Amino acid sequence: MTDHLLSKGARGRPRRFDPNAALITGRALFHTHGYEALGIAAITEAVGIRPASFYAAFGSKAAYFERIAEAYVAEVLPLETFFRDDCPIIDSIAKLLGEAARTYTACSDQAGCLILESLRADRNDEGRRIALRIAQIRREKLQAFIARGAPAVALIATDVVTVTMAGMSAAARDGVSCVCLEQVAAVATVGLRSLIEGGA
Amino acid sequence: MTDHLLSKGARGRPRRFDPNAALITGRALFHTHGYEALGIAAITEAVGIRPASFYAAFGSKAAYFERIAEAYVAEVLPLETFFRDDCPIIDSIAKLLGEAARTYTACSDQAGCLILESLRADRNDEGRRIALRIAQIRREKLQAFIARGAPAVALIATDVVTVTMAGMSAAARDGVSCVCLEQVAAVATVGLRSLIEGGA
DNA sequence: GAATTTATTGATTGATCGCTACATAATTCA
DNA sequence: TGAATTATGTAGCGATCAATCAATAAATTC
Questions:
Q1: What is the spatial distance between Cα B66 and Cα A25, in angstroms, rounded to a whole number?
Q2: Which tens digits make up the pLDDT trace of B148-177?
Q3: What is the pTM for the complete model shown?
Q4: Nearest CA of chain B to the CA of A125: how many Å?
């Protein structure tokens, strides 16, 4: 991680910056400002490089964002952590929603979910297209997990979880507190429990 | 409405276009593309005027959007329609959420709520600032209505409704169907009923 | 040392952004 | 009829956008 400059067998002039660090920096910037509002100039200034170096390393703004978004979805609220076969599905969902409330409000400068917030853009926005693909994969994964414990209502339960998380992400960006979102998650869980356990 | 060209007492050269029609056109465009993604060029082309005429009539893009957003919030899902004193608060909320599901999916090119979707932007985005002010006023109004029927849990119930509507608006933009959103609204209502009626 | 390879710097490119200056056209009021 | 007023068309402002070009620098390979 710190030996990015060494790269023994590399020919040519070595990089003067760490691409991984640049991805971390970019993640924070995209999370704060969004895909469209964040310009190359702001990225390169924050990383401490010139545009040409940025494009040599990452190819394009879209490719740069895609790498960041892929890493984000793999790290933040990974579904495998919550859905285990020895745990009632409703408990898994409750834990997921509660943890989402905390994650989305952990840093006021980067509130909400990077992926879900990147969906809020024009249809033809490149950032939205990338985020949409990632969000759909995640959604299918979630639905598969829920289907294992509640096959009859998996689709609607997945929609409820998805809508709730999107709403919590939006609310977090509008400044709603962690405690409030935890309560929202709890109320949503009540409805979901009723749905899954076959209540009215 | 059709006599905008007459305006008996008006001095100077008369307008060649209907500002009200231009507001309608702009509402559809903003709803489809969002504040930032919609440029003056696209607006003026759709309305059939030149930029100079646009600025003479509306002052700025922000002022134009503000007039559209104010009209939108007054017309779409007006809270007074749903909250009446002779109706249990949970029924009012259920009707509001159900109608939101239908409204948000009525037109696929303008899915979701114009105000809520305009909140998804950079903090310093002018469109977001305008939408945020309108959304906050609406939120306070909603909380006041809910407090009349359920004062003890008005704050959290308001948060749940707000989050659910924001999530439904986002889902509608991602292509989720009306039927699915109606089911989501129904599940959310179950949780809210439990909250309001003091259940577990 | 010479050739090759890769990354850097610095200066731009063409497109688009919101917005406006200027002259002209069309109307009302005196 | 002429002055005042308002809207229009043309043309372009400075700023910013993502992305790139040519020249140079720093490494490896031969």
A1: 34
A2: 999 999 999 999 999 999 999 999 999 999
A3: 0.94
A4: 9
